[in-house]
Fold this protein.
Amino acid sequence: MAGSTEATTPPPAPPGRHFLSNPPSNRRCQCCRRRRPPALPALPGLLSLGLFLSLLCCGALAGPVVDPHVKAVWGKNVTLKCIIDINETLTQITWEKIHGKSVQTIAVHHPEYGFSVQGEYQGRVSLKNTSHTDASIILANVTFSDSGEYVCKAVTFPLGNSQSSTTVSVLVEPIVSLRKGPNDLIDGANQTVAAICTAATGKPAAEVIWEGDLGEMETTSTAYSNETVTVESRYKLVPTRFARGRRITCVVKHPALEKEIRMLHVLDIQYSPEVTVTGYDGNWYIGRENVLLRCNADANPLPMEFTWSRLDGGWPEGLQPLNNTLHFNSPLTYNYTGTYVCKVANSLGQRSDQKTIYILDVPFKQSSSVAVAGAVIGAVLALFIITIFVTVLLTPKKKRSSYLDKMIDLPPTHKPPSSYEDNLLSLSQKQEILPICAKQ
């Protein structure tokens, strides 16, 4: 019928085949749609997204530039570095300190509102520079409680937050002192402590050494509850008078010190006096004036007393002892001949020396002695020259060998015929011939 439609049913499918319920045109479209790859976003949009993600990732990883480990010295100032090395808009910078699981805000730096310090850090924390990208702070009057971890946080747009941490270790400079040993250094005594060098309450313990080759060192350490350590080093030696005035040096090294500390100690060795009497030249004669004997004493401590005496005979008039000098105020006579003794004492003991004086009749002139010495030397030289001359004259000269002596020494086969033998032969022949000629 016109204008009507009839529903037609597809014929039964052959064995092993099945038709889809959708018309063939629909099957073709679905098949093509299933094999088509998914649509991609526009290329410019993809590049923008990748660039944004890379900037966000890299900015978060970069973080502020800080010093990972900082050593602060107790009682002094320390700088905590924080540099924001990005080209983005900086919103805010915050310094925090980590206390276990809690966080304490120290200071905030805002580009518009400025720099503010929080709580107990007011008056101790200041901004090092006024740059928007430099949030380095100065922590004044460092104490033990300032050790720990500090965090510098930077808030930027559009990258967001980034942070870096700094660990602060608080060091303590040692108090260095040097003093002499408890006992005096006396010549001949046993090993004694000469000097004591102390590096007190340092953190960590200081290194103490000695420069000097006269003895040995002995070091002890004492630790305290605040982690400081006192180091005491004793320099020991066997005292001898020859070490007096020698120098030893205590050297202290510590990480809180800009350079090592060096302290000098001069050894003071005590000993009894060493005495020598001088002034006598061997030419003291009758009538000589203005002569004296001097008592030279080397002692430590200094000599306390000089005593003059004479071994043989009485004490002549005109002698005047004055400290270490014995003055002969009168012209010399035979009475001054004798042995004079000087005795010197200090707190460690006493020693003495003596000098024997001979008074001559006449002065012993130095020029005469020089002339005699010259004459003796001249005589020795003359005798030496004469001996050489006589030796040369008496030595026999070697006789020169003649030509005949040389020929005799040659072997028989090498000797030439002797002209002398030839002459003898010719002479005998002539004597034999002459009688014959006479008979004829």
